[in-house]
Structure formats: C-alpha cells, structure tokens
Amino acid sequence: MNKNIIITIFVITLSWTNIVNGQLPLPEHSIAKKNLIIKSNQVSLAPVYSISQYTKRNLTIDKPTLGIEALYIFPKHNNIKNFYTSARKLYIINVLHAISTMEGMQYYSQSKGKMSTLFEKSYMINNKTMARVPDPKISVLKPEYSFYALQKDNILGQNIYYYTITIYSKYIMFTVQNSTAITYGLLTLINKEKFKLYGFIVEDRENINIYLVYSINTRHLLIPIQKLTISLQNRADAIALWIYKRLS
Question: 17-26 pLDDT, tens per residue?
Fold first, then answer.
C-alpha cells in the first residue's frame, strides 16, 4: 500500500447513548475520539505525555501500513476506589486476565450492517501443549504479567496471541500481538508479531480513560482501507466497553 495516499482521518466524539455510524452504544456522558494513524507524528489522543511518547516510539519501530488510535473517556462511579491503591490495581489486573469473558463479545459488523459476535472463542492456553487453561486469579501485584491466548474472531479467524500487562505508577498498560501468522486460505495476510494492540488504562478522580492503538503491518490489503479502518474502530469500541463494564 502506498503510504503517500491521502487518507481521511476519522474523529468521532460521542456524549450520549446512541449508535452513530454503526458504533456500539456508549454509556451516557462518555466520549470517544478516534484517528487513523500510520506515522508516529499523527499520534494526538494519548491521555498522558509518557503514553504518547511510548506510542510514537513503537510506531516508529513497527512501521505500520495501517493503524488507529482511540481514546475513550468513561464516567467513574462514585463507589470506585482510588486508582493508586494496590487493591484497585490488583482488581484491574484480574479484569485483564479474564480472557474467557471475551468469548461472545459483540461488536458492530460493518459488512453485515448489524451487531455480530467478535470472539467466537477466547481462552488462555499453555503455549507448549496448546491446552486450555482457566483464567487465573491474581492475588499478588507484580511489575509485569504475560500469557498466551487462543482467540477466534469474526475478522481475523483463529490465532494465538501473546499478552503482556505492565503496571506503571499512574496507569496500567497491556499489549497484544499475534504469535502466529494471520492467514486467509493459503495467503498470509499478516506475519507473526505484525498485528499489535497497545492499551492503556488511566484513571483520574472523575473518569476512566482507555486509550487503544492498533498497529498493523499487512502484506496484502484485501478490503478497502476505509472499511478496514472502520472495522478496527468498531473492534476498539468492543474492547474498550468490555474493559469499562468490568471496571465500573
């Protein structure tokens, strides 16, 4: 794909519960902003400066043929404890380890024009034996966690993904990358470790901020870039809502 092609940047802001352009309904008073990005200098939605710098560095390394960033600002319920407590961080870590709860997740399918199942299968595996393992119950805080998961979705098919979760002082980061090539029939669409999701959870006194960045380096673009961009945005909506509903 020619990176010099002029690409329309999509920015969508929502502040009410509604489906706009086929998106999932967001909770009342939520805000969602989204951009198409393929170069590091296009990053503009990161909620924290250090997250912006991290994202720019990795996009420079990834050299994606397609990427999006999406910032979701969700209202925090009054009964939620301060993010900086160990108990709250541990709770978030367990939410991010609950991979099996992603099975059956709904998203808006642009091609079908209706809500559809994103993940038909989603569970952790032992990477050596490929056997399914249950979601763990994390009771001790560590600087970083990692695991493998098998996920079969409506867009990319069945693949193995490598997850990492890292605790920083003011936010929690998680990354996802394919550890198997993503194929369509005999055609390799995305090589190993070339489909990446960078996710960040930042809480303040009033809001839960979820910032997602997809970085994809594809060998073959089988569908128009606009449709693929919207598909990624809808996918991001589903991931962000899955996290928020379990944190709120």
Answer: 333 344 678 8
